[in-house]
Amino acid sequence: MTPAEPTTTDTAQPHPTPAVFFGHGSPMNALEQNRYSRAWANFGRSISKPRAILVISAHWYGNFTAVTAMPRPRTIHDFYGFPQRLFEVQYPALGDPELAQEVADIAQPTRVGLDQDSWGIDHGTWSVLVHAFPAADIPVVQLSIHARRDFDAHFELGARLAPLRDRGVLIVGSGNIVHNLRALSWSQPELGFDWACRFDDAAREVLTTNPAGAPALQLHPDYEQSSPTPDHFIPLLTIAGLASASDRSLEVLVDGYAFGSLSMASYTLDVKCQTEKDPRPSAGLPDPALIAPEDANV
Fold first, then answer.
1. What are phi and psi of 86, to 5 degrees?
2. Bridge-partner residues for 172, per DSSP?
3. CATH number of the domain bearing residue 147
4. How many CB atoms lie within 10 A of CB 58?
5. Burial call 182-200: b when 16+ CB within 10 Å, e when fewer
6. Domain containing 166: what range?
7. Residue 5 CB: number of other CB atoms within 10 A?
8. How many CB atoms lie within 10 A of CB 292?
9. What pTM was estimated for this model as a whole?
10. What is the pLDDT averaged over residues 36-55?
């Protein structure tokens, strides 16, 4: 794929650009057609082409806040144990240094560094965008997750990013509401454990009625088992912050489970998407006899 040169504008949009949280699951979803990847594609077809895409991915997680600011970000294959054809996937979208500076400005007082060369487009981003925007002709910028910030800070950062929607920027969170790789059950490829379903249901109730309550989900009795590390949950807080800033609630794009302890739920803001019935489940994971799921960096 050869990306087109981006066209940017400072003109406010007549309606805010939608936003979305993708439950990305296995990176093999990038190569497969199933109910989740088809829902992601339907989302891309349901919105007007955005000026640029800003992604908060679970897989850029560290003790800093930074935004990719290079003109041509590399495709990062940040996982292990998968087939070679997955490592050969490229998503050659251009970057957008001007948007990166906008993000740094609008996020204040949070300090956001401009990353010129260390990161790029990781699989939390490209594994969904290859379906939602397969032409790779929209500039992509990633915003890292600061591991030492509390849930309220991530939620508030999302709210501060809301004006970007009026400038034609699609804001994407990519993670999983339930993400416990040590609890995966290979005998339950399409089911969720009771505790996973309880927490997923509680999150749905909050997101579709009162997104401002999303940070308090960490107090739910099933949160720690559902999200033993917060990296995959935090991108949802950004999108909840956007929704709260707009005084809107989120809508379910698609939902379901993979291997007992992964929620594949995705949510949209300010767009209704037609979903197709597709019986095909989420993509699989590497053989646990060869590599433990938690070492595959899913």
1. -75, -35
2. 20, 55
3. 3.40.830.10
4. 25
5. ebbeeeebeebbebbbbbb
6. 19-295
7. 7
8. 14
9. 0.93
10. 98
